[in-house]
User: Fold this.
Amino acid sequence: MHLARTHNIHGARGRLSLKAVYHFFPSLEERRWSYAQKFLNKVEGAEDEWIEGYVQALNGMLVALKESHSSPEPYILQMKRYSGQELQNLKEDFATLSNKPVNTTFDKGYIQAWIDYVSQQQSKAKSSDSAKRGA
Assistant:
């Protein structure tokens, strides 16, 4: 189940949509921790295993970035250096992982959050490349 098809899923205290999540990702990069935490607070407690997995991944991204001074470097920070092709390969790896039959619904939601983050990073990289070519 992907967020593009689940815009009407509501958690106990909020709605989770891909559009909302795409506002969450920039808050991570801009270090707007309180905004990101408010978003997570709205959707935590959903009685849906897939959403719980998705939100857990988002929470992990937030914690990793808040504690980015730790060693080793969090994976989410390493991804910022990936080329467009490396991001595509990563997205495909996550998709393959998500389709393994041993995954629970929670796992599939967790992995989908990473796929969505990589997709957002790809879009950002493409627009940055376009701007560089136009300059």
User: Anything to note?
Assistant: The chain is about 65% helix and 0% strand. The CA atoms of residues 129 and 135 lie 10 Å apart. Residues 3-126 form one domain.
